[in-house]
Fold this sequence. Notes:
Oligomer: single chain
Structural class: alpha+beta
Helix content: 25-40%
Strand order of the largest sheet: 3-7-1-14-11-12-13
CATH topology of the largest domain: Aldehyde Oxidoreductase, domain 4
Number of strands: 30
CATH class of the largest domain: Alpha Beta
Distance between the termini: 72 Å
Shape: globular
CATH architecture of the largest domain: 2-Layer Sandwich
Largest sheet: 7 strands, mixed
Mean pLDDT: 94
Strand content: 25-35%
Amino acid sequence: MQKPSLLGQSITRIDARAKVTGQAHYPGDLTMPGMAHAKVLFARRPHARVRHIDISAALALPGVLGIFTGADVPNNEYGLVLFDAPVMVSAIENGSLAAENAPNAKSFDGIVRHIGEKMAIIVAETEKIAEHARSLIKIDYEDLPAITDIHEAIKPDAPQLHPHYPGNVIQRYRVRRGDVEAAFAQADVIIEDTYWMGAQEHAYLQPEAGLAYIDEAGRLTIQVAGQWTHEDQEQIAHALKLPLDQVRVIYPAIGGAFGGREDMSVQIVLCLAAQRLNRPVKIVWTREESMIGHHKRHPFWVHAKLGATKDGKLVAAQINGMSDAGPYNYTSNKVLGNFTGTCVGPYDIPNVAIDSAAVVTNNIPSGAFRGFGAPQGLFVAETQINKMAVALGIDPVELRRRNCWHDGTITPFNTPVPPGCSLDEVISACAENLELKIENGKLEGAASNSPFSIFNSKFAKGTGFACGHKNIGFSFGYPENSACTVELRGNGEIEQAIVGLAGADCGQGAHTAFLQIASEALSLPREKIELQLSDTSTSGSSGSASASRLTYMTAGAIVGAAKAALAKWQDEERPVKVHHVYRPRPTTQIHPQTGEGDPNITYAYIAQSAEVEVDTATGQVHVRNLVCADDVGRAVNPQQIVGQIEGAVSQGLGYAMLENFVTEGGYVKTAHFSTYLIPSVLDMPDRVQSIIVEHPDPTGTLGIRGMAELPLMIVAPAIVAAIHNATGVWVNELPVTPDRLRKALKKQR
Length: 749
């Protein structure tokens, strides 16, 4: 008898036993006979011309097998979106690139633009020898002025930091809807303020590591942690000038990612070493190397203005925002697009003007991080809304209900919200669980009507509210797709189904979700389903484990492949093998002058409330309760969703209050977990109430929406609103460290 569907059940993760028993192999655990060890030499200076690289003394060290520099890279460039960064920085000798690399020289090569630039990869019999050899390499640098402030970088007389980006700007967006000036002139209340959000480190448990070798089929192969096997394959093949089918990428267990593994780290240099030496080569970065060697969340400076009538109707919003991209694009143009789409919130505002820019500096590159521009955009939008609620004396939940999106609401891009908008539903679900009720624009339990009275007691309590939206999938005209292969075996009945998918499980439980969706689509118990996962040689591309897209897209691919395979099975074609590529509805770029367009497939929606206790003497903030209502469309595995919520809340809390990534002159001052603090169990809220809302997305297969980024995105504005509710102080800079809050309290007093 057919077993019931696994869809919607909290089944145990398929990798749980291997991970808790230590049997799962992460890249740093891998070994092979004859394996050599590698180390990377980083520039460790923010801006310099490279005059000469002398590897002679290092090569002479016994046990050193090879040292490779930018001159050894056949096509010395990489980039997830744009090829604008050198794999390793080459030397400029006598005013030109070294002769052996001249035919492949890039206009941007020869210059160090941040401290994490790779200069060489050293391969030796042991890691210790490789480390010693690294110290023997001599590089003649000509230091150049470092530009680390975005406002300085865009001045007319600022040095040009990258030849591809005139004026040190990678991307600009301009959105215009209605008449903003006229609307502000008629507004009863205007909220205007400036915000700054700092960088954030991904802090995944497993630092960058990998093992590269030539496999049994003669393919250059790497086992590494990443988020998109086929994109890694393409970038490796591009840099090394190899056919795609001669490069194989395999993901073993991945110890976290959060966007931090979307761009290249060890992949290209490790493959280069294995190819040139024709033997397995392994590398494992230290935590400090990881901290300087991969990108960070974009810092943002934003000036915002919001206008409303006295009855709470939002009439105008104006945003001027700039992100610090670092020296290369990575995903800065795409992150800026997401910021632009979220910075005025999910509200019906008839008059909008947005100007945003991604600015080049000599800081560590910025790139993808869970939320992908939306945490920055929504911090501004939601803090502005909360300030407006206070100014109008209107319940902050009610103010949102009066203005929030519904199906068909016209967005700032001058196109309607896609069908399936559930924002009002998630606002209600969250508000119903508030333990402190909102009355007459004030939250019960607030310190008092006078903010100064907080100093009569050491502790002050308050509650804050926020909501938001997040696009699902790649946007702005990218041709989204996801591939799946289904093979059915058996005679009279299906005895085995082999399902091939490349989608990465970075710890979020994606592979378990794949199994549950396949069980539903094929009407088979889990015992009859075999998954072939995360290997470019066994499946087509699933796209990236990012943009809250993986479950949404792979569901379409699995269901499509399953339907086609079952149809052939019914026609007596046995065994049967089907390859299916799912393509959702197309999106468009936005108009460069007006911002008009249809940039996103669909959205997911969230609301949160935070109850805090503020120590007014020290500036310490403790979150007592956090309520998080997420619309997931259809819950594939409820327990995994709760895990996603709680993990995202932890990261969001770190972003809001704790994680202060400090740089000075391009140098990182917080390159260890002893100086860069992430939340511990003692920093977590006393309670996280996870509310799963299931409002099926009409565009999503089986009604599924993505949700992995949602719970992080509005933790900061909810907490900042709660701090204000407790103390009367608004803090416009993230993170809200105790020192910053204490200074704000002192200034208010």
